[in-house]
Amino acid sequence: MSISHALLGLLEAGPRHGYDLKRTYDEQFGQDRPLRYGQVYSTLSRLLKNGLVEAAGVEAGGGPDRKRYTITDAGITDVETWLRTPEEPVAHLQNILYTKVVLALLSGRDAADVLDVQRAEHLRVMRELTRRKRAGDLVDALIGDYALFHLEADLRWLELAAARLDRLAGKLAAAHTSHGSPEGGQA
Hints:
This protein has helices at residues 3-11, 18-28, 37-49, 73-84, 96-106, 111-135, 138-163, 165-178; strands spanning 16-17, 53-59, 66-71. A hairpin with a 6-residue loop joins β2 (53-59) and β3. Mean pLDDT is 85; it is low at 183-187. The protein is elongated, with a radius of gyration of 25 Å. Helix content is 65%, strand content 8%. The chain is mainly α. A three-stranded antiparallel sheet has the order 1-3-2. The N and C termini lie far apart (50 Å). The longest helix has 26 residues, at 138-163.
């Protein structure tokens, strides 16, 4: 996620100081990855330098004074452009799980064990997400559903890969033999 755009979007509601931006960001988007204060202030510094936000005064409080920021017209245009630009769907054509399966087969290890361990981990995470969804609010439910749907797709792939292990092992063995392995007679 673009932290810059998220902070700009939060500033559209009105001027805020960094602490308030961090708190709101963490409540809405940072369930598993809250922002560090350094990230907030370095991002605000870049946005200020690029003319997307400006200082809107200073609030005095019990601690250090807090600078308030407001979004500029250029910042609003930037957020609007970002919101209207579709994200490119990511097709993981050769992901880590596939690599582990192939390497297990090539090394003579049991690739089914690799898939079983991964399946168990996916199911563990899915149970945890389901608990969080049930105990949480609408935001937790929407974020949880998104993650669960992705994990379900991974599980379908794990099942399909398990069903095709023998064929994949045969293909890899044939390729290995034809590319110079001792069994193929080449050195």
